[in-house]
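Entry 14. Ran structure prediction on the chain below.
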Amino acid sequence: MRNFILLFLLTAISLVGTARETPPSVDPLLLYKAMHDKKCQRWVDSLMNRLSMKEKVGQLFIYTIAPTETKRNLALLREAVATYKVGGLLFSGGKLQSQAVLTNSAQKQARIPLLITFDGEWGLSMRLRGTPVFPRNMVLGCIQDNRLIYEYGREMARQCREIGVQVNFAPVADVNINPHNPVINTRSFGQNAVKVAEKVIAYASGLEGGGVLSVCKHFPGHGDTDVDSHKALPVLPFTRERLDSVELYPFKEAIRAGLSGMMVGHLQVPIIDPVGGLPSSLSRNIVYGLLTEELAFKGLIFTDALAMRGVAGNTSVSLQALKAGNDMVLTPRNLKEELDAVYKAVEKGELSMEAINLKCRKVLMYKYVLGLKRKPVVQLSGLGARVNTPQTRDLIRRLNLAAITVISNKKQLLPLHTETKEMALLEVGEPGELDAFATRLSRYTTPVRFRLRKEMNEEQSKQLRDSLATYKRIIVAISEQRLAPYQTFFARFAPQSPTLYTFFTPGKMMLQVQRAISTAQAVILGHSTSEDVQNQVADVLFAKATANGRLSASIGGVFHEGDGVTITPETPVHFIPEEYGLRSEVLARIDSIAMEGIRNGAYPGCQVVVLKEGHVMVNQSFGTHAGVNSELVTPRSIYDLASLSKTTGTLLALMKLYDKGRFNLTDKLSDYLPWLLRTNKKEITIREVLLHQSGLPPGIPFYSELIDKSSYRGRLFSANRNTQHTLQLAPGTWANPNFSFKPEYISAVQEGDYTLPVSDGLWLNRSYISVIKQEIAKAPMKDKTYRYSDVGFILLRFLVERLADRPMDEYLRHEYFDPMGLERTAYLPLRQHSKQEIVPSSIDRFLRKDTLRGFVNDESAAFQGGVAGNAGLFSTANEVARIHQMLLNGGELNGERYLSEETCRLFTTDGSKISRRVLGFDRPDMKNLKNSPCAPSAPASLYGHTGFTGTCAWIDSENQLVYVFLSNRTYPDPTNKKLQQLGIRERIQEVIYEAMKE
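Output, structure tokens:
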């Protein structure tokens, strides 16, 4: 049953927002069960046949009584149950044990089991002292995971059943868009009709899944009123279109979701009932015409309490309510008079017996399906412990934590860094009230605690402000709800240091210091002073815990419904550039340059990361994975690094092996790769390969040996387009794409020796690696001048695997990626990640005839199975930056050493005498800045690399900078040169250097 209800809930929530103006007819789930249960029908029929008219009328009345065991109260209870035979009871506020005792007594006296109702909008604690206190709905509205709300509904159902309650008059389905609403306010889930509907359905489905009737209230909507219906009659002066889109929306969605109960409020709605000014609870146009007929609601309809002043001045209100279409009435105290009025109306034909029978039958069916086919007994012993269980307390804790909302985070002040030592904590509240928060903060930093006191004079306040101004960060923690005495202080509190506010109060309390929070760099709303919340907020400040709440309602004009920022342990720490010698307003130009590239078609999206002294100055993502209607680029989007793999992968492995003394730079490759001994590559040294001056060719088309030359006519390539050569690969190069691969090397399925993935539906025979080695061995050599060569790095992969005695990707993962916590850096990323996480590299229309997403773009690497020395590595800008920061740190990162300082210094400074290269790394071309891969202002000592897919990573040891740019400029067309033409990478780098200038 529970799984069915949960599935029903998820389906219902998925429908929210797609409702037609007139919802389709949907039987409430509980009623559907009753109508299709033959035992239920027999039980109802037997009672209907025995009950008198007065008894049937009595079943439609719910009598309100206090849960006290005085003689007078017991007499009232006996009269209502035994004499007037009411159908249900509603207990007002009191004690848990007393209500349970009276419930047992009432059920024992009743001829037909009583429907025990409860008004528990935020749990039993709304009416019963000493019971678990759940957050108010406005707090719950901040929660993004509606499964928690469903779980809350289930728990409330469990507690209700424990105390003998079958109906909970909850949830409030009112959309509270009026901040001055005196009665609904925090009882509502918020001011967004769609989100309110989702929460209503989740909570109510949890209740009904647990066997308790939910009752959505206050139909047709009490959210936008400034009058309390307990005291007077509010008016909804809105058009029908407005009512449909706001007030009625959650109720319509609840009906569509098959929920069973509605409570009609005391509201005047002129557009629906223009004559007479009747309260909606007494209006047939509203109850029957709108709710029953138009909206096709078939469940139980309850009135709001008929003792409220919203219906004052109306006589025989119970009779009017029943005539209006309500099924059950929350009767006023003069029960006898109200019943007599109904009896007389039936006898006179003013209210038909048929209507009474229909209502009574419906009430009885619900009684049966809610477990009242026999009289229940509440077990009194251990009741408190059964209600307030450890699981209950844990749920309350989880609800409170899930509602924590980081409302604003200007300039990405959060998360804070543990290295920030000069931090002040200003506490506003009772002494000791924020001790838990301060203690938790001390895990990450050493905050100096200050306390703002109500009785401070101006001189003391000024001294406090001056003291706080000396700190780099100021945390203002507020647990006091009455902030009027502190307003003078905050009106003059405008520190230059970044300041963040944490409120352990209801959100509306912020308005008392509105000016201060409007200028704050960050504002966190914890809603509660509970120790769990204080601990969680402290953890969130340092990204040691997650906060993903969103405001359920606007707070004045400062913050708006839906505001909120997600902080998780994966949220990168950002720093204030000015504290590290960079100007924020200059760095902001990076955004416009990156977006210029997208607008001009240089790439669909990109990532930019800039580190200064190991701290994040810029961490931005722009655009999409593949253009319109594709995923947005995020910091977690994974890119094909192309030749940036050389320094981020292959070179790291080689440096580690050098560190271990496994080779010397002057060693010959053939010393370790004997298949080169009898070739013209015999004398090539490792150093020559790293400097790209070995004489090796730039590349070798390894795929040519895979193509079945008998599968096409003529030549494979042509300098001009013709009927056979229809695919342009580059300027002056056209190809014939209509060929087949040799079946001994390529298979459409993974089987036997076909184990190396090339693309979707293409598997390479592992024996082809021998063919690649043969192709390299017989390739012609040129003179040993500077000539960039992928072939050299392909050989270095074989060298790494020979020396490490394991595949290079495994070696890198073991030595670097896993210890550094790089979860999104990998060769063959589809082994760990879905395609949706990976940015497409290109569309290969020639060889693989597929969109390459998670498969390396580079053909040489692809036909080595995706792991190669020249390309094949995938990563994110964040993780690439961490690798390069490790190199900048001399082989150390976060206290762990990966390489020796000597090895890092050697590989990044030992330069060629005939080119700009150092060992494996590229450098700026200081002799020809126009053709340099770097910005004009980049120093000559800069080192790094670029990649064909539109990537780069550069390390500046003089200025302690790391700059990473990742894009997929090759998607969808690898011949796209706009990234280079616009100079995007270089211009962004130039902005970084401009930001450092005074």
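Residues 146-162 form the longest helix (17 residues). Will compare against last week's run tomorrow.
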